[in-house]
Amino acid sequence: MRVRRSLAFETQNPDVFGRTRIYRGRAVDVRRAGASARGRVHADFPQRAAALAGAASHRRADPGVPPTRGRNGHRSQLRPRHGSIDNLSACVACAERIGLAGVVVHVGSGRGQPIDEAEVQVSSALEQVLSRSNDCPVLLENSAGSGDTLGSRFQQIGAVFDRLGRDARLGLCLDTAHTFASGYDLRADDGIQQAVDEIDSHVGIERLKLIHANDSKVGLGSAVDRHENIGHGFLGDEAFRRMLAHHVLKGMPWVVEAPGYDGKGPDLQNVRDLKRLAGRG
User: pLDDT tens for residues 88-121?
Assistant: First the structure.
């Protein structure tokens, strides 16, 4: 298991994360790099992102832990609008150019449409993004299931993959708080195994590439996305101990997205807590 702090500021932009084994968790603050909250991407975005990624690799607060912290906000939604498609495409191109491991994005909302129609629109948007890229992975993150958001069930994510011919560049980012809020009881071994089994059946366990580690401010099946510091929410320490001991999940890179004890985003204490629960601290 490799624990990281999230470094990407995620306004309406994807989470760009680093090649874990090579770049040791390097990531990019996409707003400082020139991608605005309204989805506009500045012309020098790749150069500024590369500079930030390079600087991050030289400032280490603790061995194996990225030196700066990030903040969790609203990620881009895959809707068939030129702004969001162009923005995501620019971030994917940047990730390819500076050697990052991929881009994480929320599936988005159906906005009142039937699920099948929403899946078609998401697939169409993703197809356009993938057509502009080479080999950069795009990881869809599961959602908490609030409102008409897609992706709270792994079957929905698998359906999008099916519509795209199971493109090898598609992968999954598992968010622990979202998974719990969408009804999977990660406090119990059976609940963890249920989630893993459904991922394997509908997505393919080999496509699980990253875990966003968050406790939850809300209860099981609440369908509300509210992150809490590790061990201080409804999941608690024992849930993370169990997940970190699971034979599949313990081999994944884990990125902490918790709100932080000062309310400014993922901090070193959350990273240390997660390492402690993994038996490493």
Answer: 888 888 888 777 778 888 887 777 778 888 888 8
CATH number, residue 148? 3.20.20.150
Whole-number Cα distances in Å, 60 to 268, 271, 281 = 11, 13, 18
Closest CA to 99 of 59, 135, 56, 140: 135
Nearest to 171 by CA among 113, 93, 241, 253: 253
Give phi and psi for 36, each to the nearest 5: -80, 165
Report the domain count for the chain: 1
pLDDT at 45: 58
pTM of the entire predicted model: 0.79
Range of the domain at 244: 2-277
Separation between Cα atoms, residue 281 and residue 272, nearest integer Å: 7
